[in-house]
Each structure stands twice: as structure tokens, then as C-alpha cells.
Amino acid sequence: MKAGKFPLLLHYHLDIQRINIPYSFLAGLAGYATGLNFFTSFIVSLVTGGYFLASYLFDRNRKHEYYFYYNKGFSRAGLIAYSWLLDGLLALLIATVKSIIR
Q: Which of 30, 87, 98, 102 is most buried (CB neighbours < 10 A)?
């Protein structure tokens, strides 16, 4: 991937995170209410269910924006894969900070 394409990927990732983080936060609170650790529930939801829900909602509400990314050289599967990997790195960072603070 060329360095000039990274800002576009980051823009897509931030659009997904605007949906993902609130849903993952709610999943973390629901996990905490049932006795699980909040951060563990949040991290799992951030990478799995929350991400796929956010990706689905982005596809339903802003499907026309994929043409912009396609014209810049990104496929839909490539966008989702790169964004999911960035999401995994974010979850790894949160888990590392959590373990250091403990």
C-alpha cells in the first residue's frame, strides 16, 4: 500500500469507529452488569461484534461512499480487512495499557 493511501484508510476506519466505539461501550457495560470484566467485554466487542455491526451499518447507510474508495484503489474487502487489522491493533494497545496499569 502506498503511503498516500493511508489517510484514506484512516478516514474509513474513523467512520467505522464512530459507530463501533459506542456499541462496544454498551456491550462492555452489559458485560460488566453480568459480572464480566468491563475492559475485556469492551475489547472483545471492539474487534468482533461491534466492528461487524458498524461495518454493516456503514454499508446500509453510506453505501455510495464505497465508490469513492474504489476509485482510489481500495476494494470493499480490502477496506474492511485493513480497518479490522487497525481495530485489532487498537484492542491490543488497550489490553497492553490495561495490563501495565494493573
A: 87
Alpha carbon distances (Å) from 74 to 37, 38, 100: 37, 35, 37
Full-model pTM: 0.82
Domain holding 19, by residue range, is: 3-101
Question: Is the per-residue pLDDT at 3 higher than 70?
Answer: no
Q: Among 28, 46, 27, 26, which residue's Cα sits nearest to residue 37?
A: 28
Please provide the DSSP assignment of 1-68 as one string.
--GGGHHHHHHHHHHHHHHHHHHHHHHHHHHHHTTS-HHHHHHHHHHTHHHHHHHHHHHHHSGGGHHH
Is residue 1 scored above 60 in pLDDT?
no
12 close to 83: Cβ distance less than 8 angstroms: yes
